[in-house]
């Protein structure tokens, strides 16, 4: 018998044992998932109706989310009535261009989307974080493809202490994990608190956040020359995103795009 025969025999046996271990592991994982579904059945994140899988919405709730689809404004990311098949600008983007390059959002900030975000942001309900990450990865596919790093919009220190988490950072981590992009939560800091922007005009919002962000000196090498995607929960007037973009551009960022769960749009 030649020396090659034992090797030829042993390799398939080893592969078979290896495949068997993987099959056994997969079986245990499936069994564990089935047991978990019995103890914690998958429920719709909107209405708590029993559904087939975790981190999802039932068909009825899905229809209540006003997803943003093309055609849309290439700069502001808001939906447009008609399309031309190429990049288009809305009247608002032409009249008052933002300080960031492009913005994209998953849906309009109303209906069920508003309720989901408010639960996540103000009521410490993080059940939808994986769903949000999937949505953001799809809505921001074009932006994420060109991105070097994701940067969450930071909270003021006192607000972070009272809330115990930064919702933008959670969204950035979920999106970065799905898109395979790094996340830098330290690239931006707030110089001061600005208070809530609710009820302010666009001019008042811009004044309120003017100069509020900065890039720390030790983060300059991580920002300069980079294509950055800012992550936030809601784009209202764009004032906060513009203020953050200005700070990043002053630090040498090559490009600054914005990706959010929702946008306030008429």
Summarize the structure.
This protein has 266 residues and is an alpha/beta fold. 44% of the residues lie in helices and 12% in strands.
Structure description:
The protein has 266 residues and is an alpha/beta fold. It is built from eleven helices and six strands. The chain has helices spanning 4-39, 59-62, 91-95, 111-122, 129-139, 141-146, 157-163, 167-179, 202-209, 220-223, 239-250; strands spanning 102-108, 149-152, 189-190, 213-214, 227-235, 255-263. The strands form two sheets. The chain has a four-stranded parallel β-sheet with strand order 1-6-5-2. A two-stranded antiparallel sheet has the order 3-4. α5 packs across α8 (167-179) and α9 (202-209) runs parallel beside α11 (239-250). The chain is globular. The relative contact order is 0.13.
Number of strands: 6
Widest sheet: strand ordering:
1-6-5-2
- Helical residues, percent: 40-55%
Which geometry do the CA atoms define?
globular
Biggest β-sheet strands, sense, barrel: 4 strands, parallel
Would you tell me the overall average pLDDT?
84
Ranges where pLDDT stays below 50 over 5 or more residues in a row are 1-17
Instruction: Indicate the structural class.
Output: alpha/beta
Distance between the termini: 81 Å
Which descriptors apply to this entry?
266 residues; alpha/beta; four-stranded parallel beta sheet; two-stranded antiparallel ribbon; 11 helices
Summarize the SSE layout with pairings.
Blueprint: H1 4-39, H2 59-62, H3 91-95, E1 102-108, H4 111-122, H5 129-139, H6 141-146, E2 149-152, H7 157-163, H8 167-179, E3 189-190, H9 202-209, E4 213-214, H10 220-223, E5 227-235, H11 239-250, E6 255-263
Parallel strand pairs: 1-6, 2-5, 5-6
Antiparallel strand pairs: 3-4
Helix pairs in contact: 5-8, 9-11
């Amino acid at each position: 018998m030649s020396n090659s025969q034992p090797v030829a025999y042993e390799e398939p046996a080893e592969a078979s044992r290896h495949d068997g271990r993987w099959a056994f592991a997969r079986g245990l994982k499936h069994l564990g998932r089935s047991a978990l579904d019995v103890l914690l059945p998958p429920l719709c994140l909107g209405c708590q109706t029993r559904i087939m899988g975790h981190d999802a919405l039932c068909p009825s709730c899905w229809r209540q989310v006003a997803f943003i689809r093309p055609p849309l404004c290439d700069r502001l990311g808001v939906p447009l009535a008609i399309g031309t098949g190429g990049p288009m600008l809305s009247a608002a983007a032409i009249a008052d261009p933002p300080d960031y390059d492009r913005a994209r959002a998953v849906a309009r900030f109303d209906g069920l989307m508003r309720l989901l975000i408010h639960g996540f942001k103000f009521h410490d309900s993080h059940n939808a974080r994986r769903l949000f990450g999937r949505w953001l990865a799809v809505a921001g596919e074009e932006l994420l493809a060109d991105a070097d790093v994701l940067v969450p919009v930071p909270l003021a220190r006192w607000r972070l202490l009272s809330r115990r988490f930064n919702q933008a950072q959670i969204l950035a981590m979920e999106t970065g994990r799905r898109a395979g992009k790094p996340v830098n939560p330290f690239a931006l800091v707030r110089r001061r608190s600005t208070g809530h922007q609710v009820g302010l005009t666009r001019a008042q919002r811009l004044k309120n956040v003017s100069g509020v962000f900065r890039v720390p000196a030790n983060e300059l090498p991580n920002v300069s020359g980079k294509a950055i995607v800012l992550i936030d929960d809601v784009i209202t007037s764009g004032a906060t995103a513009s203020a953050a973009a200005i700070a990043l551009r002053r630090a040498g960022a090559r490009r600054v795009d914005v990706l959010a769960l929702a946008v306030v749009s008429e």
